[in-house]
């Protein structure tokens, strides 16, 4: 069993930055790929990024390429999502999730955090 907790969300102006963290406890964190997802009411959950268990490969959604960076520190059981040049369309609840595969599709992910709200507004 793996427990995930997101933190670092908040309110930021357009063009600003936020750094989200996903902390894990319970099982063997470094065996899992970690994905970041986001969701707004009435829309499907969207894959933002996914990093392999060793952190050697990261996949990004086209909408965030060049603005978002995902990294992980397995010694700290933490994955990060650095978000730069934020836009109002980035407003959503952001979730991290764990899977055996670093995919942007949500269905292979077995463990999910509770989410953290990111609001981009002036």
What does this structure look like?
By secondary structure, this protein is mainly beta. The chain has no helices and eleven strands. The chain has strands at residues 3-7, 10-12, 18-25, 33-39, 46-51, 58-60, 68-73, 78-83, 92-99, 111-112, 116-120. The strands form two sheets. Strands 2, 4, 5, 6, 9, 10 and 11 form a seven-stranded mixed beta sheet that branches. Strands 1-3-8-7 form a four-stranded antiparallel beta sheet, with no helix packed on it. The protein is globular and about 40 Å long. The termini are far apart. The model has no long low-confidence stretch (mean pLDDT 96).
Mean pLDDT: 96
Query: What is the count of DSSP helices, taking H or I runs of 4+ residues?
Result: 0
Strand count, sense and closure of the main sheet? Answer: 7 strands, mixed
Proportion in β-strands: over 45%
Global shape:
globular
Low-confidence stretches: none
Strand-and-helix sequence, N→C?
EEEEEEEEEEE
Q: What class would the helix/strand composition place it in?
A: mainly beta
What is the C-alpha radius of gyration, as a whole number of Å? 13 Å
Percent of residues in helices comes to under 10%
Q: Based on DSSP secondary structure assignment, what is the total number of beta strands?
A: 11
Can you tag this structure with a few keywords?
122 residues, mainly beta, 7-stranded mixed sheet, 4-stranded antiparallel sheet, 11 strands, 0% helix, 48% strand
Strand and helix map with partners:
Layout: E1 3-7, E2 10-12, E3 18-25, E4 33-39, E5 46-51, E6 58-60, E7 68-73, E8 78-83, E9 92-99, E10 111-112, E11 116-120
Parallel strand pairs: 2-11
Antiparallel strand pairs: 1-3, 3-8, 4-5, 4-9, 5-6, 7-8, 9-10, 9-11
């Amino acid at each position: 069993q793996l427990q995930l907790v997101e933190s670092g969300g908040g309110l930021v102006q357009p063009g600003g930055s936020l750094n989200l963290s996903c902390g894990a406890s319970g099982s063997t964190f470094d065996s899992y790929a970690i994905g970041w997802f986001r969701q707004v009411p009435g829309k499907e959950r969207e894959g933002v990024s996914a990093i392999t268990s060793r952190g050697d490969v990261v996949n990004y959604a086209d909408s965030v390429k060049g603005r978002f960076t995902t990294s992980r520190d397995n010694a700290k059981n933490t994955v990060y999502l650095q978000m730069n040049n934020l836009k109002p369309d980035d407003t959503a609840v952001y979730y991290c999730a764990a899977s055996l595969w670093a995919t942007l599709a949500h269905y292979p992910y077995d463990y999910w955090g509770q989410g953290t709200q990111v609001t981009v507004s002036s």
